[in-house]
Amino acid sequence: MNKLLRILNKYIVLLILWSIIGMVWVYVRPILMRKGMLSTSDFESYSFINSLPTYIDYLIRIIIVTLIIIDFKKHKLNYVVLTAFATLIYPLLGIVILSLLLIEKWKENASA
């Protein structure tokens, strides 16, 4: 179990970071709007700042997909493409698939 937690630690940290950024943005954006820092008159900067959480979300998803592919190759697991696609849509699903495949592989190796 300790070995699995060491592998999943990076994914857990990324998901926590993703949630923290999302929650902070929910509270910071109205403050910026009230103070006049996010003015709708400058549409380019307003659009960029408003879509910043989306860019961070995509970046974290791509990082998680890359790490999943690396872990699949390192542990010689099957279903890389399916898991990468599932991770891109819903990152937690890819992490669960990786965990289940790792547990299954270790169980087969222990019984053999």
Please describe what this structure looks like:
The chain has 112 residues and is mainly alpha-helical. It has one domain. It is built from five helices and no strands. The longest helix is centred in the first third of the chain and has 34 residues. 11% of the residues are buried. The model has no long low-confidence stretch (mean pLDDT 89).
Quick structural summary:
This protein is mainly α. Helix content is 87%, strand content 0%.
Features:
single chain, mainly alpha
Straight-line N-to-C gap: 19 Å
Which series of helices and strands comes N to C?
A: HHHHH
Radius of gyration (CA) equals 19 Å
- What proportion strand? under 5%
Structural class: mainly alpha
As for the number of domains, it is 1
How much helix, percentage-wise, in residues?
A: over 70%
| Low-confidence residue ranges | none
Mean pLDDT: 89
Shape: elongated
Number of helices: 5
Major pleated sheet: none
> What is the total tally of β strands?
0
Helices, strands, pairings?
Blueprint: H1 2-35, H2 43-50, H3 52-75, H4 80-89, H5 91-111
